Amino acid sequence: MVFVALVTIPAFKSGGPAAFAVRGFPGIVRSTIHEHAEAADKGFWALEILGALALAGLLFFRRMGGVPMIFASLMLVASLLISGWMFRVAHLGGLIRHPEIGSGAQEAQTQATPAAEPVSSSETSKDDD
């Protein structure tokens, strides 16, 4: 957890420059960037706090001869919750450049696109010659 908390810092710091870089791109919606940034901010700080608690627990419980099961269980539950939150952050980030993955967008795209005509077996045998 300590390592993950440290590795998250460069990813978090790159968010502002990335938002600035894509600001003028066609199809980029400012509200989508804002929603991703807000979720990332909360997830980042939760992860940093969890990393600090993990480091404190390692240092404190090292003297006691081992980590108590309750502390390890709480850390596991917290890390799973934060992982779920970070999956949401990643999904929101994907929506910035790929709006087609949003809810309902896939259905609208398939309704607007006509179905491809099936290829007959005689047409495929002509291609083999």
Helicity level = over 70%
**What's the shape?**
elongated
Q: Give the radius of gyration.
A: 23 Å
- What is the first-to-last residue Cα distance? 60 Å
H/I helix tally: 6
Task: Tell me the series of helices and strands, N- to C-terminal.
Answer: HHHHHH
Uncertain runs are 105-113, 115-121
Averaged pLDDT: 79
Our count of domains comes out at: 1
Oligomerization state: single chain
Strand proportion, as a percent range, falls in under 5%
Q: What about the largest sheet?
A: none
Structural class: mainly alpha
Total number of strands: 0
Task: Walk me through this protein's architecture.
This protein is mainly alpha-helical and 129 residues long. It has one domain. The protein is elongated, with a radius of gyration of 23 Å. Helices cover 75% and strands 0% of the residues. It starts with a helix and ends with a helix.
Q: Short summary of the structure?
A:
The chain is 75% helix and 0% strand.
List key phrases describing it.
single chain, 129 residues, mainly alpha
How is this fold's topology laid out?
Blueprint: H1 2-13, H2 15-21, H3 30-62, H4 69-97, H5 105-112, H6 121-128
